[in-house]
Amino acid sequence: MKSFVFPQFQIIRDEAKCGQCRGCERQCAFGTHTYDPVSDRLISDDNKCVGCQRCAIFCPRDAIVVRPNPSFYRPNASWSREKLEDVKKQAETGGVILTGCGNDKPFRIYWDHMVLNASQVTNPSIDPLREPMELRTFLGAKPDLMDFKVKNEEVEIATQLSPNLMVEMPIVFSAMSFGAISYNAFLSLATAASKLGTYFNTGEGGLPREMREKFGKHAIVQVASGRFGIDAEYLNCAAAVEIKVGQGAKPGIGGHLPGEKVSVSVSATRMIPVGTDAISPAPHHDIYSIEDLSMLIHAIKEATNYEKPVSVKIAAVHNFAAIAAGIVHAGADIIAIDGLRGGTGAAPKVIRDNVGIPIELAISSLDRRLRQDGIRNRCSIIAAGGIRCSADVIKAIALGADATYIGSAALIAMGCNLCQKCYTGKCNWGICTQDPRLAGRLNVDIASQRLVNLISAWSHEIQEMLGGMGINALESLRGNRDHLRGVGLYEWELDVLGIKGAGE
Amino acid sequence: MPRNRRELYNKEICACSIFGAMNRDGERFNAAGVMKAIANMHVRGNGLGGGFAAYGIYPQYRDYYAFHLMFNGKTLQSQISAKAEFEQYLNQRFDVVHDEEIPHRPQTQLRDPPLIWRYFASPKKMGEDASLSDDEYVVRTVMQTNSRAEDAYIFSSGMNMGCFKGVGYPEEIGEYFMLDQLYSAYAWTAHGRFPTNTQAWWGGAHPFSLLDTSVVHNGEISSYGTNRWYLEMYGYACTLQTDTEVIAYAADLLLRRQRIPMEIVAKILAPPIWNAIDTMNEKEKKLFTTLRMVYGPLLMNGPFAIIIGQTGRLIGLTDRIRLRPITAATRGEMFYLSSEEASIRLISPELDSVWTPSGGEPVICELNSRRV
Amino acid sequence: MGAVEINADGLQTRDLNDRLRDMMLAGKRKVIIRNVCGQRYIGTRLYSPERHRMEIDIFGTPGNDLAAFLFGHRLVVHGNAQDGVGNTMDDGEIVIEGRAGDVLGFSMRGGTIYVRDGCGYRTALHMKEYEGKKPALVIGGTAQDFLGEYMAGGTVILLDLKGQGHRANFIGSGMHGGTIYLRGSVNRSQVGDQVEISPIDEADRGILDQYVSGFIEKFPDLELIPEEVLKDGFVKLIPRSKRPYSDLYTY
């Protein structure tokens, strides 16, 4: 059947600049560029281009421009080009449209409607370059009150404390499984986390055995519905265990790693045969009600001898605050909430773009609900889903989160351009692929350095902003909505966020 | 934040433990065993709700409706004035032969207990109401009271039965109302709750009841909005902010008002899937297709395990794909239902039969005398 | 070496498991627990890098998630078990002299479970195998709906010794690995589309022989004779493809 869909991208090659080095041909795993020896020219097939910009960036003469295809249909506010072409694709194949990365639709971005405070005159700013400016924080359950025993001027803590994770800055690498991303990308995240003093999340793909000794103590390991790669050693070598109930990109549905991405090493880590689909079913089939989740949380605590915090990751959806409150009652030490813009390696596009709520509203409503119930201290909140810069991190903390998970930002640091084709396994940047030729392009030393650079830069910016607000320790910002004002928001949005309008 | 002009409500998520016990010969027993059994499933709840339903506990008033009332005001004064206001209303509509505070153990410390009172009454139907049946008259009274008065809540309205519930672990509620000392029933149901709203209120605990139908429920009804939308047309006010109430009202509508046998009612609440219906014989296919067509809005979606109590019988039912556990067991004339087998074994170590019913298949236990 | 006894009467889950762990660390190899009534995760707290191995006899009714994440120990239950037995079990052996509840062997990845009577819903859900580790589940009775849902590896054998017939529906829904053997027969309508029903061959007989002998050895009171059990017809259920959903998505 001939496809009635335009190519998404158009490749424009400046023939005067092109030196026929065939670099673009080598770089593109989709086979977009081919060399024609007869005419001594590179020929590009627009239909194969996914817009990842690898060829354009690596062309030594900047001879290639890749841009969205300018052909358009008659302008129609309801039938956008995307909606129109999706109908055609489904008519051609009868399949569910798959995509990668996070929600790209123009839902309101609340981060861009909140502004921060700065101190002047009445409360001095603090100079972060010369004065202490502390970003360290602890993730886990804290007791309601502490008991101390004082004996001969020596103070002893009498309360038994729950295990907590110490992070040097409120930024943690989000769950991206080995299988969805390449070994090198996964190792880069682990290396960067250990250098920075933060953590990385293994996602549901398990933690390869050779990485456990060095990186286990910086790993948050996941127990997802597919239970891949889980044995008692896996649970016990980690710093924390996270039960993945849902994620922002695809709330309510399961995950699917296509068999072509289950290579020898992926299969070894997940403990399934090579080439099988790795299916994570939609629910955990032993969790059909909140008391079942409580049972699994305690089973994991038992299996790890109560030495590690247990986190539960949920997608932010409509009634989630009540559910999250229930999860805290069920014994979770950390709640990770993933909002509408959370990324993924593969999800049906219709679910990624239509299910879930924005994380900004979610953080605020969860923080408020837990405080109303008097249980806010029994867990830490990690917010995820579209955190793009240090200002987003700070605003998340001010709304009530303890820390943030970053996924897309980390991948972009390593080279990703959000072309949304992760599920094909042909990532030209070597990030979301198991093809050794492609994965080998990602140099672990360089990629981990880039991650360290990003987080360090953000940390400095956070310190500057904190200092500007007259705060020198992160815990003084948590839930401190006084330092936020809204601009261009409706009344109900200000209500949900719990902030005043600018000028009020 | 919820605005009246929009269909907003705060739904509570409910997860928990359930238990039921019945003596088929109608011999009555106190709640001690049932309290032990539900306490054994302590970890399934979080102390924010517990309750019991008991059948056969008021033999000396067996022909009167036993109303159990909660007066929830913040101060004793406001509770007393709510009571006075309710009694004025009640006396207009009913002849009350006896009323008293429901006895409780003062030593048992529970959070913000309301004033709890019971009335034994018979209907005094006047004017247009004279054409109504007694049961219908009582239902309207209950709906009117519960939807209007904020501080007065009728939480039990059957004959020769009663519900006892509140905020606390179920064993604490049992102790508070002295269920192991003061009452003998031929059937008990019990419930331990794990709600997610810490400002739990006494009326939010299970069982939910209307007339002699009581429901204890483990799970969450994801079709609540639809079920409620349908039931409201038939005069049921769904004001209790808990999904369980739709099960109680659906049971009342189908079993009492429309007199549909329980086996069919189970097939309305938990119908077979279309693939299965399409392979049935003509007669069955027509029946089940019609049921789904007409009563589709009463399909209970989402995980659930419920025990419905009525005069003379207990019914256990789970959703169509059995997402919540239920174990049934018998020992001589005793019949048990429980979220976990261990709780049954605790009070009856030897059992004649133990099984887990299939999803959507009701387990019905009736008094031997009823069947004859 | 004699066995140590624990009286579980009145013990909460955590206390009971604390004691079991202490016994393991103290080098005890055999433990008997009496008066068990609903305590959960028995056998879960027994991970040790030194790989201690214990044999635990349980009298009473253990609670949910018995032997979740089990790390190679052997448990015998003298009575019925509840839901979640062998949840994500890594290795070891469980013998149940009675019935088991729902989600038996959920995500099981190694070891063997023998159940004398029947079991509930969602048995062997997402059971998986990898290289040397191939878990097995041998059940003397039958199972309820969703047997082998999402199964990715391992072996499940249902013997239906009482001849009640297999009445489960949605068998093998989403199955993409492993094998289910049913003694007796099953209708096509009871089984998922991606599952193939076929007769057994010599290799299958060998596997059945091995596991049935194991089963008979665990339950001597049933007085079964291997040849009697094995002579009746068995059917084999296997997935048609490793990739049952390969046509579901479009790119």
Automatic annotation (TrEMBL), chain A:
[4Fe-4S] cluster 1 binds at C18, C21, C24, C59. Belongs to the glutamate synthase family. PROSITE patterns: 4FE4S_FER_1 (PS00198), 4FE4S_FER_2 (PS51379). The keyword Cytoplasm does not apply. Keywords: 4Fe-4S, Amino-acid biosynthesis, Flavoprotein, FMN, Glutamate biosynthesis, Iron, Iron-sulfur, Metal-binding, NADP, Oxidoreductase. GO terms for molecular function: 4 iron, 4 sulfur cluster binding; glutamate synthase (NADPH) activity; metal ion binding. InterPro entries: 4Fe4S_Fe-S-bd (IPR017896), 4Fe4S_Fe_S_CS (IPR017900), Aldolase_TIM (IPR013785), GltB (IPR024188), GltB_archl_type (IPR043578), Glu_synthdom (IPR002932). It comes from the Archaea. This is Archaeal glutamate synthase [NADPH]. Coiled coil: none annotated. The lineage of its organism: Archaea, Methanobacteriati, Methanobacteriota, Stenosarchaea group, Methanomicrobia. One of its GO terms (biological process) is glutamate biosynthetic process. [4Fe-4S] cluster 2 binds at C28, C49, C52, C55. It comes from Methanothrix soehngenii (strain ATCC 5969 / DSM 3671 / JCM 10134 / NBRC 103675 / OCM 69 / GP-6). Its cofactor is FMN. SUPFAM superfamilies: 4Fe-4S ferredoxins (SSF54862), FMN-linked oxidoreductases (SSF51395). Gene3D superfamilies: 3.30.70.20, Aldolase class I. The keyword tRNA processing does not apply. The gene is gltB. It catalyses: 2 L-glutamate + NADP(+) = L-glutamine + 2-oxoglutarate + NADPH + H(+). Its EC number is 1.4.1.13. Residues 9-38, 40-69 form the 4Fe-4S ferredoxin-type domain.
Automatic annotation (TrEMBL), chain B:
The keyword rRNA-binding does not apply. Keywords: Glutamine amidotransferase, Transferase. InterPro entries: GATase_2_dom, Glu_synth_lsu_1, Ntn_hydrolases_N. Coiled coil: none annotated. The active site is at C16. PROSITE patterns: GATASE_TYPE_2. It comes from the Archaea. Residues 16-372 form the Glutamine amidotransferase type-2 domain. CDD domains: GlxB. GO terms for molecular function: transferase activity. This is Glutamine amidotransferase family protein. It comes from Methanothrix soehngenii (Methanosaeta concilii).
